[in-house]
Amino acid sequence: MPAGTQREADLETLLLGPVLPERDCGDCTICCTVLTVNTPDFAKPAGVPCVYLTTGGCSIHATRPHICRTWFCAWRRVASMPEEARPDRSGLLVSLTFVPEPQNCFEGVAITVRALDGRDTVASGMAATVLDSVCDQLVPVWFSDGSDKMLMHPEDAVARLVLSGEAAPDDLRDEVAAWREQYGVFASDG
User: Is the dihedral of CA 71, 111, 102, 11 positive or negative?
Assistant: First the structure.
């Protein structure tokens, strides 16, 4: 879960869109267990249920920490994600992630699609549906099963060329140039 700074909240709105008024969390409390929270007013490790989470939901909902009032998963923001993609229904939690010391340009700020334990989202087709709804802009998208992660967008050939700085073949030139321009740190195709 993001640290909750205004800059990160602004990026979430810019990249994922505003919170959709017609969508609410309902009975979904997936984020209350799956995500890491590390803010000045509240902290919890990933995979551990929040101490305030009960079978009826958040026991301090009216006075919950700022991060819990302002953070929303991508299902609450991305209109192209179907209703069935709500995390408790789909088995996928989609969010914007911030890696303070990224290994490469695709890790710093990215969309992460997390498959939840015990759900076969690949076989059901839900993973493909959700990935299709978020792989439509110049924002990296990762798919994670909790232990491993795989870059899904851009495709491998484009990512390799962006990172290597090598000249792209004609069929990939525009896409590679767009990613390089977005991240501004790679040599341009000449």
Answer: negative
Please name which of 28, 42, 163 lies closest in space to residue 94, comparing C-alpha atoms: 28
What is the pLDDT tens value at each position of the chain, 190 positions in all?
Answer: 444 566 676 888 999 999 999 999 999 999 999 999 999 989 999 999 999 999 999 999 999 999 999 999 999 999 999 999 999 999 999 999 988 899 999 999 999 999 998 778 888 899 999 999 999 999 999 999 877 899 999 999 999 999 999 999 999 999 999 999 998 654 444 4
Question: H/E element holding 66?
Answer: helix 66-70
Q: How many CA atoms within 13 Å lie on the side-chain side of 106?
A: 22
pTM (two decimals) = 0.87
